Amino acid sequence: MASRKKTQAEPSIHVLHVELMGIQPAIWRELHVRSDTPLSKLHEVLQAAFGWSNSHLHMFEDISRRQYGHRAAGDSSDFGFSDTPLQDERRYTVSDIAPRARHIFGYIYDFGDDWVHRIRVKKVQPAEVGRRYPACTAGARASPPDDCGGPPGYARLLEVLRNPKHEEHQEVLEWVGGSFDPDAFDLIATDKAVRSAR
After folding, report:
1. CB 101 within 8 Å of CB 88
2. What is residue 93's DSSP assignment?
3. Which of 102, 180, 185, 187 is the residue whose CA sits 20 to 30 A from 85?
4. CB under 8 Å, gap of 24 or more: what pairs does 29-32 form?
5. What is the distance between the alpha carbons of residues 105 and 21, in angstroms, rounded to a whole number?
6. Is the pLDDT of residue 1 over 50?
7. 31 contacts 134 by C-beta, under 8 angstroms
8. Which residues in 6-132 belong to E strands, given as ranges?
9. Of 29, 46, 25, 48, which Cα lies nearest the Cα of 185?
10. In degrees, to the nearest 5, what angle opens at C-alpha 143 toward C-alphas 177 and 35?
11. Would the pTM of this model clear 0.85, i.e. be above it?
12. What span, in angstroms and rounded, lies between the C-alpha atoms of 102 and 62?
């Protein structure tokens, strides 16, 4: 009798809708990640998807307000946003904190600017044969520049950029690199960045 090879089960994929809160029109990305992705890796994917510079603290928070973040060996501190201690994000996966469709959790980047991302699980599906993960499959609008002051600072930045007569226009224009289109979104470049996140 011929022996059968055991085939390893394909991993499931979480389809995530990630929206940056406090800004209209909405800035969002759709990400496909393996369900067993550690939160520490998801952090890197989110940094790539939104073009952040990964130069500030961050934290995840589940629906029960349990917090997850980077913790150095022996570190027992937390960020002080709730009474629960900070969990080590390397020990928990996407499916641990949001196992099913319609589950929601949060990601906060830069506790000074407070970029709050609302992450909703759109669906959990089988991995597609031959497809690489993580991936960005859709999105809208450019991400705000890092260190621009959170949603209020971003609103002011756009106001200054829209007014060539503003006394700070030239200075802000140089700070953003010479041009900035808040409505621009490059799916190919974003997907490439997400795939390279590590």
Report:
1. no
2. B
3. 102
4. 29/136, 29/138, 29/139, 29/190, 30/122, 30/136, 30/137, 30/138, 30/139, 31/134, 31/135, 31/136, 31/137, 31/194, 32/133, 32/134, 32/135, 32/136, 32/137
5. 13
6. no
7. yes
8. 12-20, 27-34, 58-61, 67-69, 87-88, 104-109, 115-126
9. 29
10. 135
11. yes
12. 13
Chain-centre distance for alpha carbon 102: 17
Helix (H) or strand (E) holding 191: helix 187-195
What's the angle, vertex CA 154, arms to CA 195 and CA 177, rounded to 5? 65
Distances (CA, A) of 77 to 73, 83, 95, 147: 11, 12, 25, 25
What does the block give as tokens for 187?
């799916």
104 neighbors 94 (Cβ within 8 angstroms): no
Q: What is the per-residue pLDDT across 89-115, written as a single tens digit (0 to 9) for each?
A: 999 999 999 999 999 999 999 999 999
| Token pair recorded at residue 177 | 């690199």
Do 143 and 50 contact (CB within 8 A), yes or no? Answer: yes
Is omega for the bond preceding 151 within 30 degrees of 0, making it cis? Answer: no
Question: Residue 168 carries which side chain, given as an amino acid letter?
Answer: E
